[in-house]
Task: structure prediction
Amino acid sequence: MEKYFFALDLEMNQAENSAHTGKIIQVGLAIGNLQQDIKEYELFDWYVDPNEKIYSRITELTGITNQDIQEKSTHLEDIYNKIYEKIYHYDCYPNPVVWGNGDSSLLKQTFLNQLGYCKMFGHRDIDVKTLHTFFQLSKDKPTSSSLKSALSNIKIKFEWEPHRAHFDAANTLFLFSELVKRQRTANKIFEEAAKLL
Result:
């Protein structure tokens, strides 16, 4: 039976030209295994009240409005409990799959600061951006890329709308899955070649 993995993504209320990451306004979770298609993943998303107005550029980028936050935001404890429930229900690999370091550490620290505990995510991420950079370097190709362009580099279309936390999480998990499967294929070729030596 294939192991399940979970991917996390955050959307932030970040001021334009600010070095500060801003406050979390959406948490996205995708859960699936390496044999599933992206549309078979379980997806979840929750709005988080940052206790400040959403910047207009963030609404343009993410589609998240002040009204969404007012009407649909979820308490952090409920988000924590739902993530915990799902990753343990599927017996997921303990480390989150992410696009670029930071999201899981920030979410973990937010749970610690506001709830006083966080007993999930382990001590590391599986950073797909770093994996993609490695593969690009191995092919002597440019390494700078967005999640959408990284998928395009291996002839995969980004599904749904970007900058929606649950959709970004799902596409991150699918890219990870494809990279693992391609490496497994390469490993088999190397093993067969070694038998001929």
